[in-house]
Amino acid sequence: xxxxxxxxxxxxxxxxxxxxxxxxxxxxxxxxxxxxxxxxxxxxxxxxxxxxxxxxxxxxxxxxxxxxxxxxxxxxxxxxxxxxxxxxxxxxxxxxxxxxxxxxxxxxxxxxxxxxxxxxxxxxxxxxxxxxxxxxxxxxxxxxxxxxxxxxxxxxxxxxxxxxxxxxxxxxxxxxxxxxxxxxxxxxxxxxxxxxxxxxxxxxxxxxxxxxxxxxxxxxxxxxxxxxxxxxxxxxxxxxxxxxxxx
Length: 247
Prior knowledge:
Blueprint: H1 4-7, H2 11-14, H3 17-29, E1 38-42, H4 48-55, E2 61-66, H5 69-78, E3 83-85, E4 98-103, H6 113-125, E5 127-137, H7 139-142, H8 148-153, H9 165-174, E6 178-186, H10 194-202, H11 214-224, E7 237-244
Parallel strand pairs: 1-2, 1-4, 2-3, 4-5
Antiparallel strand pairs: 5-7, 6-7
Helix pairs in contact: 3-4, 6-9, 10-11
């Protein structure tokens, strides 16, 4: 697992920067009901998407939450006074405070299914009746774009997809939320090149391939044999699901 405190300084530049943030924010905003005034962005990271959410609709007041101090510091510089350091499984916020809650690229990081269930439950708890929760799902699948890199990596060991859409929907239903829409957006600037994929492998991006292990070295060697080492392959296309809290 990546150390997101160490990742904070280079996170945006390594993941598509502003173009990706714009695409994500526009997709989230498109799933929010008219009249949304208070939005909580859970796992806001560096705040690059959170800031775009705040700027994307007049009258929208956005609060960010992140567990990693390094990420929260970056976000606080973008949204002064609007970022809380907290665990998504234990939000220090009162019931029904927000009109909407978003969690972009969070649930796939959970270590257990119970962690995902608990996070979804917390997002549901802080929503007012009639409010909407929007989250990304199936993140790992989005990165499989049918490229030669994907062909090399196809046989790698994988951990369970904690953010599988059907699972997330079941947790939402368990907490009284009902499906309320879906959307897709392109992760601009995130198309992988072979050389970048090797670098990601070396720093622990692929959780089931610990850096320095024999298997990681084997995959790195195979990736290094691919042509066009610095040419990005197609960008991933991410999926969003929205869930409403009945009134």
